[in-house]
Design a protein that fits this description.
The chain is α+β, with helices and mostly antiparallel strands and 148 residues long. It is 46% helix and 14% strand. The longest helix has 19 residues. The two termini are 30 Å apart.
Length: 148
């Protein structure tokens, strides 16, 4: 999946929003920089709260304690990317509201968006919560067996 969402409005410095999560293309357009990690650190230094960027098939990255956190997106056979960004950001917001740590929230969101990409259609292609949870169990067991 090479296409990434770029429709991002400006986020004002020190705005009231505690979390800022945009596409990597939007982040680079906002900062005028060419390196996503450098741009994340720049925005984090000038804004309150969480700063992160969805990076399409590459997953999600964010700044946490001056370090860049990263979660890779699951590799899938892409059918349609329509609404993948919406699914990602909705799933990320849900996971954060449910109290998941950022790495787990990012993994949940990446999995939801990746599943969406395996299906045609916007809303009709969105995975259910149960499908995302099942995919996460499969992914986590694969990670554990790969480390064994």
């Amino acid at each position: 999946m090479k296409t990434r969402s770029i429709s991002v409005g400006r986020i004002g410095p020190r705005s009231g929003a505690a979390r800022k999560s945009v596409s990597d293309a939007g982040l680079l357009a906002y900062t005028g920089m060419t390196d996503a990690a450098q741009a994340l650190r720049h925005v984090a230094a000038t804004h309150f709260g969480h700063v992160g960027a969805s990076c399409g098939s590459e997953g999600y990255c964010w700044v946490e304690d001056d370090a860049i956190g990263r979660v890779a997106a699951p590799v899938v056979d892409v059918v349609d990317t329509l609404a993948a960004g919406d699914v990602f950001h909705g799933a990320l917001a849900l996971a954060i509201l449910e109290g998941l740590p950022m790495e787990a929230a990012a993994r949940f969101a990446c999995t939801a968006a990746s599943l969406k990409c395996t299906r045609f259609g916007g809303r009709l292609g969105c995975p259910t919560r149960e499908e995302v949870d099942q995919a996460l169990k499969t992914i986590c067991s694969t990670i554990v067996s790969d480390r064994s």
